Amino acid sequence: MEQNTLAVELILSHPRQSLGSIRLDWTPQPGNYLDFEEQTYAVLERHHRYQLKSGRYQLQKIALYVQSVAPPTERTFVSGIWIIGDPSCRFNARSEILRCAVKPNGPCDGCGDYQKC
Length: 117
Description:
The chain is built from no helices and seven strands.
């Protein structure tokens, strides 16, 4: 194990599947973003995995449950947070993770349910 790096397993939340493992020199928190294989993910949950060595538990790796996030072109900075989707639509969730109640996976372009708020 390299000095000051941590083994991190990335797990896609839905559908649940392992994306692979990486080594990080920082500890991601829920709400952080990270890039992996040319895709940006939002960290939803973090689980620690420990191993017993010489009578002591040591952090072996971290499992991050992540969700793919919208490309930067579909994000807007509103009231201090980055939201995805069209903020002028009545159904927009005003969330960094969920686009809207009607069409959560988007895209907003051409959505027949658009209603200006």
